[in-house]
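Summary of Year 1 activities. Much of the first year was spent building the evaluation harness for sequence design. The harness presents a backbone, in tokenized form, and records the residue chosen at every position. We chose the following record to illustrate the format because it has been used consistently in internal testing since the harness was completed.
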């Protein structure tokens, strides 16, 4: 059974950092495109970042570019989202998703984790 599980969320002060993990089980992440999404209360889900399985090309939303970094550790079958210089507006539930059809269509991924809460507040 293919599963994704996020971890690493929590409460952090503005300007702080968190690293989210997306661990896969039942399949090997290496060949998959992995996307990170977030959804704040009352708002639509937003694509945050994605890494292509074919060549590790990365993509970022404009709101996080320069602050967030997506990376993949094939040995641990895990994808990370390093989040620096966090702002209150980054508060949301962050979810990872995986599929094989490219980052341009990752919104329609077949496999999703349950999400991890990130709260940025003083």
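For this record, the design step produced the sequence shown next.
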């Amino acid at each position: 059974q293919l599963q994704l599980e996020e971890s690493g969320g929590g409460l952090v002060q503005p300007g702080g950092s968190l690293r989210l993990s997306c661990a896969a089980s039942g399949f090997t992440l290496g060949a998959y495109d992995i996307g990170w999404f977030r959804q704040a209360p009352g708002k639509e889900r937003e694509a945050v970042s994605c890494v292509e399985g074919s060549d590790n090309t990365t993509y970022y939303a404009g709101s996080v570019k320069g602050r967030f970094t997506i990376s993949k550790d094939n040995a641990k079958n895990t994808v990370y989202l390093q989040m620096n210089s966090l702002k209150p507006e980054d508060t949301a539930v962050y979810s990872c998703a995986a599929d094989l059809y490219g980052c341009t269509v990752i919104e329609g991924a077949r496999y999703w984790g349950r999400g991890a809460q990130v709260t940025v507040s003083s």
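The chain has a mean pLDDT of 96. Quantitative recovery figures across the full test set are reported in Table 2.
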